[in-house]
Design a protein that fits this description.
Blueprint (H helix, E strand, L loop, with lengths): L3 E5 L7 E4 L5 E4 L4 E5 L7 E12 L8 E4 L3 E5 L3 E6 L5 E8 L2 E5 L4 E5 L3 E6 L4 E6 L2 H5 L5 E8 H12 L8 H5 L1 E7 L6 E3 L1
């Protein structure tokens, strides 16, 4: 369709910042794709995400901003939040930085309101979820070139690194894969501004 703009990122790690037609700002992580119209329709501002993105949504209560992933719908009117919605991952998540969002879990049709400092992890395979209080920067630091791990299994550490660099990293030793790790990895990459 002519009215939909699609932003995809290639095989090499690259974060991309873009301005949406309503003034909202999005940071799209490596390997992600964001689809959105060149002009939002009255009544709703909808985008479609496969991957990870951080959103700073321009306030507009009459026209809610909705992020659709394969397994979740996130509705906001003016807020900042991170969405992890990789179609090939069994865990989808939303991390609230400020404001309030409503999250609808696709298969259960259950709706939850998240407040600042909260994160929902939704296991799409088991169709269950957990809401917890978190350090939001840990989950949003990727947009600043940081991966932060706090007492996480090595399997999870390598999964996140693999998403960043578009690589599959497998820990063959199952016992080692369960060991907990703490780390902060810094990396540099182009982070061009792109106005649309």
């Amino acid at each position: 369709r002519d009215d939909v703009e699609s932003r995809g990122l290639g095989d090499v790690y690259k974060r991309q910042q873009m301005n949406l037609p309503d003034g909202s700002i999005v940071w799209l992580n490596s390997g992600g794709e964001l689809k959105y119209p060149t002009k939002f329709k009255a009544g709703e501002r909808s985008v479609y995400l496969n991957g990870e993105a951080f959103f700073e949504v321009h306030s507009d209560k009459k026209n809610p901003f909705i992020v659709y992933t394969e397994d979740m719908e996130v509705k906001a009117t003016g807020t900042a939040f991170n969405v992890e919605g990789y179609s090939n991952d069994t865990i989808n998540a939303v991390t609230m930085v400020n404001g309030v969002v409503e999250v609808e879990l696709d298969r259960s049709k259950e709706r939850l309101n998240l407040k600042p400092g909260q994160r929902i992890n939704y296991n799409t395979k088991r169709q269950n979820y957990r809401v917890e209080e978190v350090d939001t920067y840990k989950w949003c630091a990727w947009k600043d070139g940081k991966l932060i791990f706090r007492d996480e299994p090595l399997d999870d550490v390598f999964r996140k690194i693999g998403q960043v660099y578009n690589a599959d990293i497998v820990v063959m030793d199952k016992d080692l894969a369960k060991h907990m790790y703490r780390a902060c990895l810094l990396y540099t990459s182009p982070s061009p501004r792109d106005s649309t």
